[in-house]
Amino acid sequence: MHDETTTAPQARALRLGVAGPVGTGKSSVIATICRHLRDEFALGVITNDIYTDEDARFLKSEGVLPEERIRAVETGSCPHTAIRDDVTMNLMAVEDMERDFAPLDIVLVESGGDNLTATFSPALVDAQLFVLDVAGGGDVARKGGPGISGADLLVINKIDLGPYVDVDVEQMVTDAEKARDGGPVLALSRKHPDTVEKLCDWVREMHKTYAGGGHIPVDPGPMAPHHHAHDDGHTHSHE
Ligand SMILES: Nc1nc2c(ncn2[C@@H]2O[C@H](COP(=O)(O)OP(=O)(O)OP(=O)(O)O)[C@@H](O)[C@H]2O)c(=O)[nH]1
To answer: Where is the CobW/HypB/UreG nucleotide-binding domain (predicted)?
Structure first.
């Protein structure tokens, strides 16, 4: 009988998206993954910024990978568009990277920083992390949204800051688990090596499942309707 929960073993790299609100630590999470796993896996990184290549420059300056394995996509539009509505620019960047450095094991794709609504299309990534931080407030996890509830892993970052911003990290994790119907939640700080190891283990496990054909990409769901106002007075909306 055909088993619909598995697919053939994968020939190409695992494409792993990292999304989340501005400043929660997406670039830092990617830097951490690269530093700890670069000797185990062949890695590449694609960053998304609206007008700059700042995130790519940060990762290059940190020396987390050889510079040519870190490439920037300047989306020129709201971050949702490039990771969800029309993923062409990103898909081309990922495919170029995979071709130039074949065979790659994992390509990390960082979304531009946005609000709680941005998620990757499963046409672009195979799995996705959504990153919140404790500095954004303990109640954020309760607010839900497609990334919080539907990403393959929810990261609650900067837990070392909990005491300074009066956030009960354990409660925030419990709230997040509830919002995700028990889906995985990782409390992370780059200053707590045990949490970094858990992040690496999650990536290892995801890669193993994916490479063996046992991972089916899940769409966390569409963003909520919203609109953007631009400097020139022009607005656009996503319904
Ligand atoms: N205390 C603490 N600070 C952290 C941690 N991770 C990241 N930061 C800091 O948080 C700030 C934002 O981190 P980034 O990695 O640039 O965040 P980002 O989500 O990529 O930001 P944008 O790309 O601008 O949306 C930086 O000053 C980091 O040094 C952490 O675990 N603990």
So the answer is: 17-185
> Phi and psi for 30 in degrees, rounded to 5?
-65, -40
Residue 103 Cα, ligand 1 centroid: separation in angstroms? Answer: 30
The residue ranges of every structural domain in the chain are 14-217
CATH number, span 14-217: 3.40.50.300
Tell me the pairing of strands 43-49 and 70-74.
parallel
CA angle, 97 as apex, 197 and 87 as ends, to 5°?
A: 90
Distance (angstroms) between ligand 1 centre and the Cα of 57 equals 14
Q: How far is CA 79 from CA 18, 103, 141, 171, 184, in A?
A: 12, 28, 21, 30, 25
Q: List all residues whose CB is within 6 A of at least one atom of ligand 1.
A: 22-28, 55, 113, 157-158, 160-161, 189-191
Which of 27, 59, 132 has the most ligand 1 atoms within 8 A of CB, as the residue to mutate? 27
Q: Is 113 annotated for ligand binding?
A: no
Mean pLDDT in order along the chain per 10 residues (239 residues): 53 94 94 98 92 86 95 81 89 96 97 81 96 93 88 98 96 94 95 98 97 88 58 55
Can you tell me the distance from the alpha carbon of 87 to that of 47, in angstroms, rounded to the nearest whole number?
Answer: 13
Those residues with Cβ within 8 angstroms of residue 63's Cβ, 6 or more apart along the chain or in another chain: none
